[in-house]
Structures
1.
Amino acid sequence: MDGFRALATRQIERGRLDDQPGATAREVAARLAASYPEEGSRVAQSADLFDATMYGDRPATRDDAAGVLGLDDTLAGAR
């Protein structure tokens, strides 16, 4: 799911997340949850969705994609 990758990249660009190639979605989510505790559950859900769509047999829905992109917007607007 490209939305989660884009979210991580945006956070790296903002300096909120260290660039660590090879980090798992769960590792990224844990670091983001530490920076944005109020969004921790949404970040974890997005990481789970990434794993399910990339490594499982679950296709992402339009609502799934909208949720990840919405989280990206929320984190981008956070201070």
2.
Amino acid sequence: NSTKFFLNLCEKNNGKLYSVDIDDYSKLFNDNNWKFINTSDDDFDKVIKEAGNEFDLIFIDSFHNPQHVKKLILFYFQYLKKNGLMIIDDISWVPYCKNNYRDHSHTEVINRETFLEILKLIPNNQDIFKVHFSFEDSGLAKIIKLDNEKLKESTELKDRSYSIKNMLKKILK
């Protein structure tokens, strides 16, 4: 569905769409605006060689592993045009929580960890991008590139959830 949606956008805006997947979907569409690259999305040399090195939009709906998604963000961000968008799918764990409508333990954990990896990128990169989150369905993160600087590595967030002060507040409630 996403490929068809993006192809429609390409047709309206004279754009070009590149899809990357390890499964061969090259016969799915016959469209001059579309090129399918049959490889892993972290085969960076092959993807850049075949797709070019400047993009208005990068949509990541990849292998659902937080470290893999982070690696893709860090690498492909440099090829995103200034004011371009990077969209990362599957960042909401809420539908997958126990007894919720998509109850699934593994997806709950992976999506939450992916969300947290994106959050960890924010403190060191606040001048380089803006991030917006949507938690509808499986959720998505929308990153808007503000500057052509290279993304800096993530940093651990200093969470006060388990501070003595916070724990005392909970106990005294």
